[in-house]
Amino acid sequence: MNVQQQQVSEYDVYTRLWINRTRGYVYGTTITLRRQAGSVLIAFLASYVALAGSGCWMIMRFRLHHTFSWHPSNTQSTQHLLSRDTAGKEN
User: Fold this and answer.
1) Residue 6: its pLDDT value, please?
2) Is 24 left (phi over 0), alpha (psi -120 to 50) or beta?
3) How far apart are CA 55 and CA 64, in angstroms?
4) pTM above 0.70, yes or no
């Protein structure tokens, strides 16, 4: 196992942000990190995605509740209820 680790450590690896010009500026943008820094980046991204997902789910729940909850928007039913109230007060 030590032989493999020594072989890997013999290579010089560029550990920064760099651009692979053959793939273009957008698709070729690459970041190379050491193992520990990569683990931290993955943990941060996982937390960020979880928080963004929960916030998005809260907004979707509110919209679904607002869409499917009953609102007396029908003016005929409102007028009917008002006419009942006024008819009872006249007598």
Assistant:
1) 46
2) left
3) 14
4) no
